[in-house]
Write a structure and sequence with these properties.
alpha+beta, Tetrahydropterin Synthase, Chain A, 21% strand, rod-shaped
Length: 323
Amino acid sequence: MENSKLIEKANLTPNTVIKINGNKHITGDKTSIYMSTVQSKLKQNVKNDDKDTDIGICGYILLFLSTCIVILFFPVSLCFTLKVVQEYERAVIFRLGRVLSGGAKGPGLFFVFPCVDEFKKVDLRTVAFDVPPQEILTRDSVTVSVDAVVYCRVYNATTSVCNVEDSFKSTKLLAATTLRNVLGMRSMCELLSDREAIADSMQQLLDEATDPWGIKVERVEIKDVRLPIQLQRAMAAEAEASREARAKVVAAEGEQRASRALKEAADVIMETPAAMQLRYLQSLNTIAGERNSTIIFPIPIDLIGAFINTGRTSVKKETQSAV
């Protein structure tokens, strides 16, 4: 992009042949100019890395002396020069304080020079650790205590050794601060209902922050949310009140339906007087089946019917006289 700006400032016409870093390019071909610039920068970085990994003359002398010691005490020296790392491990070798080019070694067998090389093993397996409970003030001013679990692993052994002192400890501390920052922007309802979304956002933030340390955060889970006791009591009272209100509504609806059914049954019985006698006999059958010790004296309904009719007529007369 810088070269294209220079071409525009220089007022070069299209299809003009120019030289950049010793390579010929056409001014209209901006892609080739950009690629050549990137390649030149990569070559410069490789040269700088080669200069950094150069151990110097004294280093080569010490390396030669170490080789002589290995040859002199062969094969006993093999016990000190041959090292093995497991399938899930990598070894970062330092030669006179500098990391060897080619990255970490392993798995399997590798060679180190005595008195010159040092190595550090790095475990690549996934590690799970608990984030200590954090007292967090949510967006709606509610204090809650939240803890989480983080699953992470090392994907670049050299970076995890050279860029940070203790990668897992740093990740644990960063997870605690990230948990506080993320949950501080959420309300209590979101905290209780959207745990998966909160865990995903935390996982993305931690993964981006720990990438320079060679750490890959695979998963984050919200473990527990502890509410204050007073808030728990208030929420329990509110839930109990709502349940009681729903129970009263259901009971009232049931009574309304039962009264309608009884009214319809009474209308049917009034239309057919024989139905009352059948209902009477059915009640006697039910009582005899459930309560065997009960003594029942059945009275014919016809005897009572005359008294009921006289009572109704008297009530009608009183109402008419009152009118």
